[in-house]
Design a protein that fits this description.
0% strand; globular
Length: 197
Protein backbone atom coordinates (compact mmCIF):
# COMPACT_ATOMS: atom_id res chain seq x y z
CA UNK A 1 0.00 0.00 0.00
CA UNK A 2 2.76 2.45 0.92
CA UNK A 3 4.56 1.48 -2.28
CA UNK A 4 1.49 2.39 -4.37
CA UNK A 5 1.15 5.76 -2.62
CA UNK A 6 4.84 6.47 -3.28
CA UNK A 7 4.31 5.65 -6.97
CA UNK A 8 1.29 8.00 -7.13
CA UNK A 9 3.14 10.86 -5.41
CA UNK A 10 6.19 10.40 -7.67
CA UNK A 11 4.16 10.38 -10.90
CA UNK A 12 2.02 13.34 -9.84
CA UNK A 13 5.07 15.37 -8.78
CA UNK A 14 6.92 14.76 -12.05
CA UNK A 15 3.79 15.52 -14.08
CA UNK A 16 3.16 18.75 -12.14
CA UNK A 17 6.69 19.98 -12.86
CA UNK A 18 6.01 19.77 -16.61
CA UNK A 19 3.84 22.87 -16.20
CA UNK A 20 7.06 24.85 -15.79
CA UNK A 21 8.37 23.67 -19.18
CA UNK A 22 7.36 25.42 -22.42
CA UNK A 23 4.03 23.98 -23.57
CA UNK A 24 0.92 24.99 -25.51
CA UNK A 25 -1.84 26.67 -23.50
CA UNK A 26 -3.88 24.13 -21.48
CA UNK A 27 -1.73 21.18 -22.62
CA UNK A 28 -1.25 20.27 -18.96
CA UNK A 29 -1.34 17.25 -16.65
CA UNK A 30 -3.91 18.68 -14.22
CA UNK A 31 -6.94 16.63 -15.28
CA UNK A 32 -4.82 13.46 -15.40
CA UNK A 33 -3.40 14.19 -11.93
CA UNK A 34 -6.91 14.67 -10.52
CA UNK A 35 -8.34 11.56 -12.17
CA UNK A 36 -5.37 9.48 -11.00
CA UNK A 37 -5.57 10.73 -7.42
CA UNK A 38 -9.34 10.15 -7.19
CA UNK A 39 -9.05 6.71 -8.77
CA UNK A 40 -6.15 5.23 -6.80
CA UNK A 41 -5.92 6.93 -3.39
CA UNK A 42 -8.28 5.08 -1.05
CA UNK A 43 -8.85 7.81 1.55
CA UNK A 44 -11.28 10.23 -0.13
CA UNK A 45 -10.19 13.45 1.55
CA UNK A 46 -6.56 12.73 0.65
CA UNK A 47 -7.55 11.92 -2.92
CA UNK A 48 -9.19 15.38 -3.10
CA UNK A 49 -6.60 17.36 -1.17
CA UNK A 50 -3.60 16.10 -3.17
CA UNK A 51 -4.70 17.36 -6.62
CA UNK A 52 -6.08 20.57 -5.07
CA UNK A 53 -2.66 21.32 -3.56
CA UNK A 54 -0.90 20.35 -6.82
CA UNK A 55 -3.17 22.67 -8.84
CA UNK A 56 -2.68 25.56 -6.39
CA UNK A 57 1.09 25.20 -5.92
CA UNK A 58 1.74 24.70 -9.64
CA UNK A 59 -0.54 27.67 -10.48
CA UNK A 60 1.44 29.82 -8.05
CA UNK A 61 4.78 28.62 -9.46
CA UNK A 62 3.60 29.29 -13.03
CA UNK A 63 2.50 32.81 -12.03
CA UNK A 64 5.79 33.44 -10.21
CA UNK A 65 8.30 31.83 -12.57
CA UNK A 66 6.69 32.22 -15.99
CA UNK A 67 4.62 35.39 -15.54
CA UNK A 68 7.10 37.12 -13.19
CA UNK A 69 4.55 37.79 -10.47
CA UNK A 70 5.76 38.39 -6.95
CA UNK A 71 6.17 35.31 -4.78
CA UNK A 72 3.70 36.86 -2.33
CA UNK A 73 1.16 37.81 -5.02
CA UNK A 74 -1.87 35.56 -4.50
CA UNK A 75 -4.34 37.80 -6.38
CA UNK A 76 -5.01 35.09 -8.99
CA UNK A 77 -6.64 32.93 -6.31
CA UNK A 78 -9.11 35.73 -5.53
CA UNK A 79 -10.39 35.93 -9.13
CA UNK A 80 -13.53 34.47 -10.68
CA UNK A 81 -11.25 32.73 -13.19
CA UNK A 82 -9.57 30.78 -10.39
CA UNK A 83 -12.95 29.92 -8.88
CA UNK A 84 -14.02 28.41 -12.22
CA UNK A 85 -10.76 26.48 -12.48
CA UNK A 86 -11.08 24.98 -8.99
CA UNK A 87 -14.75 24.12 -9.40
CA UNK A 88 -13.68 22.30 -12.56
CA UNK A 89 -11.10 20.41 -10.52
CA UNK A 90 -13.75 19.31 -8.01
CA UNK A 91 -16.00 18.05 -10.82
CA UNK A 92 -13.08 16.20 -12.45
CA UNK A 93 -12.36 14.64 -9.05
CA UNK A 94 -15.96 13.34 -8.96
CA UNK A 95 -15.39 11.70 -12.36
CA UNK A 96 -12.25 10.10 -10.93
CA UNK A 97 -14.32 8.68 -8.08
CA UNK A 98 -16.64 7.07 -10.61
CA UNK A 99 -13.56 5.68 -12.35
CA UNK A 100 -12.24 4.22 -9.08
CA UNK A 101 -14.10 0.90 -9.44
CA UNK A 102 -13.97 0.69 -13.21
CA UNK A 103 -10.45 1.51 -14.46
CA UNK A 104 -9.95 0.26 -18.00
CA UNK A 105 -8.85 1.91 -21.24
CA UNK A 106 -12.35 2.82 -22.41
CA UNK A 107 -13.44 4.35 -19.08
CA UNK A 108 -10.18 6.27 -18.63
CA UNK A 109 -10.60 7.59 -22.18
CA UNK A 110 -14.20 8.65 -21.45
CA UNK A 111 -13.19 10.24 -18.13
CA UNK A 112 -10.43 12.22 -19.82
CA UNK A 113 -12.76 13.51 -22.56
CA UNK A 114 -15.42 14.41 -19.96
CA UNK A 115 -12.80 16.25 -17.90
CA UNK A 116 -11.73 18.33 -20.92
CA UNK A 117 -15.32 19.29 -21.65
CA UNK A 118 -16.09 20.12 -18.02
CA UNK A 119 -12.99 22.27 -17.67
CA UNK A 120 -13.76 24.13 -20.90
CA UNK A 121 -17.42 24.80 -20.07
CA UNK A 122 -16.98 25.67 -16.40
CA UNK A 123 -13.86 27.84 -16.77
CA UNK A 124 -15.35 29.77 -19.70
CA UNK A 125 -18.65 30.17 -17.84
CA UNK A 126 -16.77 31.92 -15.05
CA UNK A 127 -15.11 34.17 -17.65
CA UNK A 128 -18.61 34.98 -18.92
CA UNK A 129 -20.31 35.76 -15.58
CA UNK A 130 -20.41 39.52 -15.09
CA UNK A 131 -18.12 40.18 -18.08
CA UNK A 132 -19.21 43.33 -19.93
CA UNK A 133 -17.84 41.94 -23.21
CA UNK A 134 -20.79 39.54 -23.37
CA UNK A 135 -24.53 40.06 -23.00
CA UNK A 136 -25.53 38.33 -19.79
CA UNK A 137 -27.89 35.85 -21.42
CA UNK A 138 -27.71 32.50 -23.20
CA UNK A 139 -26.48 34.15 -26.42
CA UNK A 140 -23.66 35.89 -24.56
CA UNK A 141 -22.71 32.65 -22.83
CA UNK A 142 -22.62 30.75 -26.14
CA UNK A 143 -20.55 33.57 -27.66
CA UNK A 144 -18.09 33.31 -24.74
CA UNK A 145 -17.80 29.54 -25.26
CA UNK A 146 -17.25 30.06 -28.99
CA UNK A 147 -14.54 32.65 -28.27
CA UNK A 148 -12.81 30.13 -26.03
CA UNK A 149 -12.35 27.56 -28.81
CA UNK A 150 -9.68 29.35 -30.90
CA UNK A 151 -8.34 31.31 -27.92
CA UNK A 152 -5.17 29.26 -27.49
CA UNK A 153 -3.14 30.28 -30.55
CA UNK A 154 0.53 30.50 -29.65
CA UNK A 155 4.12 30.01 -30.76
CA UNK A 156 3.65 26.26 -31.10
CA UNK A 157 1.73 26.75 -34.35
CA UNK A 158 -1.88 26.68 -35.49
CA UNK A 159 -2.32 22.93 -34.91
CA UNK A 160 -1.49 23.47 -31.24
CA UNK A 161 -3.81 26.46 -30.95
CA UNK A 162 -7.22 24.97 -30.39
CA UNK A 163 -9.47 23.59 -27.69
CA UNK A 164 -9.28 20.19 -29.38
CA UNK A 165 -5.52 19.87 -29.34
CA UNK A 166 -4.61 21.83 -26.25
CA UNK A 167 -7.41 20.72 -23.98
CA UNK A 168 -8.59 17.34 -25.24
CA UNK A 169 -5.30 15.96 -26.54
CA UNK A 170 -3.35 17.34 -23.58
CA UNK A 171 -5.71 15.64 -21.14
CA UNK A 172 -5.65 12.39 -23.10
CA UNK A 173 -1.86 12.45 -23.32
CA UNK A 174 -1.21 13.05 -19.63
CA UNK A 175 -4.07 10.87 -18.38
CA UNK A 176 -2.90 7.99 -20.58
CA UNK A 177 0.72 8.52 -19.53
CA UNK A 178 -0.08 8.66 -15.81
CA UNK A 179 -2.49 5.71 -15.76
CA UNK A 180 -0.29 3.64 -18.09
CA UNK A 181 2.91 4.31 -16.14
CA UNK A 182 1.16 3.62 -12.84
CA UNK A 183 -0.20 0.31 -14.13
CA UNK A 184 3.17 -0.80 -15.47
CA UNK A 185 5.02 0.29 -12.32
CA UNK A 186 2.55 -1.34 -9.90
CA UNK A 187 2.41 -4.59 -11.89
CA UNK A 188 6.21 -4.73 -12.04
CA UNK A 189 6.45 -4.06 -8.29
CA UNK A 190 3.89 -6.79 -7.52
CA UNK A 191 5.74 -9.24 -9.77
CA UNK A 192 9.02 -8.47 -8.01
CA UNK A 193 7.40 -8.92 -4.58
CA UNK A 194 5.93 -12.27 -5.61
CA UNK A 195 9.31 -13.37 -6.92
CA UNK A 196 10.90 -12.71 -3.51
CA UNK A 197 8.60 -15.12 -1.64
Amino acid sequence: MKNKFFIIITLISVAALTRLLPHPWNFTPLAGITLMSASFINIRWKSFLLPLLVWMVSDHLVNTIIYNKSLIDFSYFMSSTALGVYISMALIWLIGNWLRTNVKISTVFAASLSSSLIFFIVSNTFVFIGNSLYSQDINGWLQCLAMGIPFYKNEFGLFFGSFFFNGVMGDLFYTGLLFGTYSLWVNKSLSMNKARF
